[in-house]
Amino acid sequence: MTDAASAESDQSEFSRFITGLARGVAGALFFALPMLMTMEMWYLGFYMARERLVLLVILNIPLLVLLAHRIGFEKTVSWRDAVRDAIVAYGIGILTSAIVLAALGLLRGDMSASELIGKIALQSVPASIGAMLGRSQLGDEDDDTERKSTPYHSELFLMGTGALFLSLNIAPTDEMIVLSYKMTIWHALVISLISIALMHGLVYAVSFMGGHELSPETPWWHAFVRFTLPGYVVALAVSMLTLWIFERLGDSSAIEIMVSVIVLGFPAALGAAGARLIL
Fold it and tell me: Which is nearest to 89 in space by CA: 112, 66, 55?
């Protein structure tokens, strides 16, 4: 390869990387802006237990690495590239969160360092996921040809990512607590069945772009048992974790906790199904 061709190739790779960064910023704003403008999220950044906030931030790191390996800012080949893209996405999430919160007057000079860092750290989690998803959702049509086959355990992990993303939108709100107290166990059962049906239908039945069609030789229950039910269990587990991190369980009884998890599992299940469609 000549020097001119090498320079042109480097410039092309740099241009793609910059384009990926721009999509990342757009994704961070597009996906995380509702949470950046949610009052409960502002207060959580101030008062939530710091060990739980640190846990959420730590859990977000391997999640971003796996997403980067799947849909990184560039055509990711190695795990080293994925780690680099995850760091970039986190940086975009932190910077975007800080700028938007400051522009909205939610970061002030008279606030303590703990409050400032807490608000930015909390908001940077959905913003960084949005930054990574920006490439998948806001990219060119040709990007679809770059999709990688995903092992079964990684696919479940990606479903957990979608569940977490939507859970972060709902879990901090007061409506979660109100719904949990108003609903009976029978309401929870109906919501659970609806969640499972929608998960399966969105991915396998309604032919959305990115959906999965079953071959005529494959029985319907195969995908249901292999993906839908495990995916719903993942969504419930993510819902339980999110409610615990956001201190929404408190001294609730086992029945109240179960209902809360099932209520949050409704949007979480849709998020898990959505992750299978777009990732």
Answer: 66
Give the integer Cα–Cα distance in Å for 175 and 183: 12
Distances (CA, A) of 161 to 128, 153, 167, 217: 12, 13, 10, 31
pLDDT confidence of residue 253? 83
Q: What is the pLDDT of residues 109-159, one digit of tens each?
A: 888 999 999 999 999 999 999 888 876 655 554 554 445 556 777 778 888
Q: Measured between alpha carbons, how far is 16 from 58 in angstroms, rounded to an integer?
A: 29
Q: Is the separation of the CB atoms in 40 and 118 below 8 Å? A: no
Task: Give the span between the Cα atoms of 128 and 165, in whole angstroms.
Answer: 10
Q: How far is the C-alpha of 279 from the C-alpha of 273, rounded, in Å?
A: 10
- Alpha-carbon Rg for the chain in angstroms: 20
* pTM: predicted TM-score of the whole model, two decimal places: 0.80
Phi, psi for residue 211 in degrees, rounded to 5: -70, 175
**158 CB-near residues (< 8 Å, 6+ apart):** 66, 67, 70, 150, 275, 276, 279
Inter-residue long-range contacts of 238-245, CB under 8 Å, 24+ positions, other chains counted = 238/160, 238/163, 238/164, 238/167, 238/268, 239/163, 239/167, 239/171, 239/264, 239/265, 239/268, 242/164, 242/167, 242/168, 242/171, 242/268, 243/171, 243/176, 244/52, 245/48, 245/52, 245/53, 245/55, 245/56
E strand map for 95-252: none
What sign has the CA pseudo-torsion 174, 175, 178, 181? negative
SS3 58: helix
CA dist 180 and 47 (Å) reads 23
